[in-house]
Amino acid sequence: MLWAMLLLPVAAGIGFFTVHSSRALQREALDDLTAILRLQQQFVEHWTLERSADIGLLASDPRILTLPEPRLRAMFRTVLDESPAFNIIVYVDQDGRTRGDPKGPSGVDVSDRDYFKAARDGREFVSDVITSRLTGKREFIVSSPVRDGQGRFRGLIMGGVSTEALSTLMRTVQDETSGNAVLLRASGELLAPLDADGGLKPGDVLLDRATAREPSSGVYRNAQGERVVGTYLWCLDGRWLLAAERLETDVIRVHAGVLAVPLAGAALVFLVFGPALLRLARSLDAPLKQLEEHARQIEQGNFEVACPPLPVADAPEEVLRLDQAYRLMVARVRSALDALREASLTDALTGVGNRKRLFSEGPRLLDASLRGGRPTSVLMLDLDHFKLVNDAHGHAAGDAVLAAFAGLLRGLLRQSDLFARYGGEEFAVLAPNAGARQAVELAERIRQAVERLEVPVNGETLRFTVSIGAASLEPPATVHAQGAVAILEALLGRADEALYAAKATGRNRVECRSMASGSAPVL
């Protein structure tokens, strides 16, 4: 009887603690799922905005309205090579018919599509996932209107983004705490990851709660009859649904090691180990609060905030493993973000910057040079008769020529120069602190070096020449931060005029066009 009286309160305490801990673990798992979904929501929305910005940048290129069909197709093919997230990029004219399709025939009528109607109304557009009329694939469309110099509607640039790209993005931020996290359409159709078990359908608890905008909390049974903890978040203004479920047994299993110590302490708390239990609770509480605070910073997009060391030296082994796993996850997320940023600014074939890097970093370099009272020059370079290389020797030979050309220029340019592939066989160089004379001298050195360059391809030696157009802006110039973009576009336009003059007068030449600071856009 005495033993029964002693064990009864211990058993009651253990039972109460077990029930209370299970509910606390469910709440913690729900909080973890919500934090993961918020991070994924930021990734999906930020990544989608970047794809829309890519299309907007392309739509602002004045050559869209002037290039003939073959060169327009080649330009889009180059952009597709640099941007694997896109299935297709085409120009749609003001009558709703495609032009410059790099993968199929032009002239497809898309005037009934929502993205054409939005562009005609002057709006950028991101569609739901559709079956493309051009590729036959499941993708979503981002589009941006094209206008001429007088601001009149002249069509649009549309890009089809593959659902495979969404899958890759979702896997970047998945880990064992993510549960079964999926991206769905509002109807419940699975979008990503494509290798997940499937989507949701009406009647599934989570989809019904999301459709009704009801909170998801506690444990419920999913469509397979399993007890799960689940939650959801809408993204892109309610167009897509992020949903995650985690088995209740997995939640308890993952935390079983952490629970074992408190349960053992609870059995002895009435006898001996009250103070020891208090010390244990403190050793768990401080590290977990610190990790929670850092996770909140990551959730808000502050990926560069360093995670401080654990505040206690004698933390349990489980907490040490949790801290190590968390730091590894953060490092992987940062690495993935850095890789995504660098890949979006680099030409995959040549390894030099692409047009996006030119317009991302160029205005800052130009602004700094002009504010310091120094001149700035731009070179536009185009390989002569490059189409003949592709036609006679194949695209692999053309790729080898482009890579050799880029490698040669990297050795000729200064470290301060910004070198980018502008499109196809066309390249651009932004040379801060270089006036017209230095720009022409640099261009002539490049022309002579290219003339001497030999590229071995399939047992043959290919030689080629380059035409170069240069444009320079001399100080003084007062430039507002937003005005640097307009000046760069004007310099590129003048250099492009000089390039075409060089081609028109025989190729393998250098032509220069100066641009007085008073003629540049100054804000």
TrEMBL record:
Recorded topology in the membrane: Multi-pass membrane protein
Query: Which key words are in the record?
Result: Cell membrane, Membrane, Transmembrane, Transmembrane helix
Per its UniProt entry, which superkingdom is the organism in? Bacteria
Please tell me whether the keyword Membrane is annotated for this protein: yes
Q: Which InterPro entries match?
A: dCache_1, Diguanylate_Cyclase, GGDEF_dom, HAMP_dom, Nucleotide_cyclase, Rev_trsase/Diguanyl_cyclase, Sensor-like_sf
For the HAMP domain, which residue ranges apply?
282-338
Q: Where in or outside the cell?
A: Cell membrane
Q: Which is a Gene Ontology cellular component entry for this protein? A: plasma membrane
What EC number(s) does the entry state?
2.7.7.65
- SMART domains xrefs: GGDEF (SM00267), HAMP (SM00304)
BP terms from Gene Ontology: cell adhesion involved in single-species biofilm formation; negative regulation of bacterial-type flagellum-dependent cell motility; signal transduction
Name the top EC class: transferase
Q: Does the keyword Cell membrane apply?
A: yes
**Which stretches make up the GGDEF domain?**
374-515
Which reactions is this enzyme annotated as catalysing? 2 GTP = 3',3'-c-di-GMP + 2 diphosphate
Q: Name one GO molecular function term.
A: diguanylate cyclase activity
Q: Output this protein's name.
A: diguanylate cyclase
Q: Which organism is it from?
A: Humidesulfovibrio mexicanus
